[in-house]
Design a protein that fits this description.
Layout: E1 6-12, H1 26-29, E2 31-39, E3 49-61, E4 75-89, H2 94-112, H3 122-149, E5 157-158, E6 160-166, E7 169-175, E8 179-184, E9 187-190, H4 197-203, E10 225-226, E11 235-240, E12 246-250, H5 252-255, H6 260-269, H7 273-286, E13 293-301
Helix pairs in contact: 2-3, 6-7
Length: 307
């Protein structure tokens, strides 16, 4: 199975400005090392997980002008990064269709937006949240309509966990039980909640929190895209990134088999994002590989902001 993994990894940054007159925003100066890997595992016949890593740019470069050099920057730009994982559910190939189409619909919605907001500061964050809420609901409607038209896809659904960063600002958008983690100063912090029946029981005080991981209802999802004809509940979190931070997105094929401390040790010791993704997937496979497993990792190098 390991030879059939889907892998994508690279380091993305824009070239250095040509001289001191060139100007780029802090978002375009940040370096993000990205890695991603998905494996069907040892038991499932197909891979219902999908991932996407993307970069969005808005740039202006002066080509010809007779303005004085200090009147207009020769180069200016904004850069955003997005990481996304989706874990499908449903009979036969329905889960694979759900996660794949959910990402496709979301990308189409983003590309059709005439004015990209490449800012996540206080003045723009609320508008971005409103747009992401609307887009998740549109994905929900698209999956529901597809299942209605094709009985073979009845009940299909998918989780979706999306991390968008612009400069040092990060917005996390989430539905389902795929997880997002922050690795900072040798500590692993979980950023989102599992939308499962077991977690709901723990939140209500019906079971102790430590029983969630082994509860029979730990995989019974209470909130997904598709699967039902009603709005999805969209969870949001905001975070200010620091130099050296790592953001990990993963499906439950990893977290069911690897405890947080094992994940932390891999993120601490791996030389590259690709190495970390490979090691995490291999450890999940060695632990049984009972489910599809997908990991996406971003490592952030953030320079000090200039005046």
């Amino acid at each position: 199975m390991r030879g059939e993994s889907d892998v994508d990894t690279d380091v993305f940054t824009l070239p250095s400005p040509a001289d001191d007159r060139s100007y780029r925003s802090i978002s375009a100066l940040i370096q993000v090392e990205l890695g991603a890997l998905s494996d069907a595992g040892k038991v499932r016949p197909n891979n219902e997980d999908h991932f996407l890593v993307a970069r969005f740019d808005r740039n202006m470069q002066a080509l010809l002008t007779n303005l004085p050099a200090d009147h207009i920057p020769e180069q200016r730009g904004e850069t955003a990064y997005s990481m996304l994982v989706a874990d499908g559910m449903g009979g036969e190939a329905a889960g694979e269709v759900a996660s794949r189409n959910a990402i496709r619909v979301l990308v189409d919605l983003v590309l059709q937006t005439p004015d990209w907001i490449l800012r996540l500061d206080d003045g723009w964050l609320q508008r971005v949240r409103q747009r992401m809420e609307q887009r998740f609901q549109q994905v929900q409607e698209a999956l529901t309509e597809q299942a209605r038209e094709d009985p073979a896809l009845s009940g299909m659904g998918t989780t979706m966990t999306l991390a968008c960063s612009v400069g040092a600002d990060l917005l996390l958008v989430h539905a389902g039980d795929s997880r997002a983690y922050l690795f900072r100063h040798d500590r692993l912090h979980r950023l989102n909640c599992d939308h499962t029946m077991a977690q709901s029981l723990a939140d209500a005080g019906a079971i102790p929190p430590q029983e969630v991981a082994t509860h029979p209802w730990r995989h019974m999802l209470t909130n997904v895209l598709g699967g039902r004809d009603k709005p999805v509940r969209v969870e949001f979190h905001e975070l200010r990134l620091l130099d050296g931070d790592q953001i990990l997105l993963c499906t439950d094929g990893l977290t069911d088999l690897l405890p947080d401390d094992a994940i932390r040790k891999v993120l601490r010791s791996a030389d590259t994002a690709a190495d970390a993704c490979r090691s995490l997937v291999d450890r999940a496979l060695d632990a049984g590989g009972k489910d599809n497993v997908t990991v996406v990792l971003g490592r952030y190098r953030i320079p000090e902001e200039r005046e």
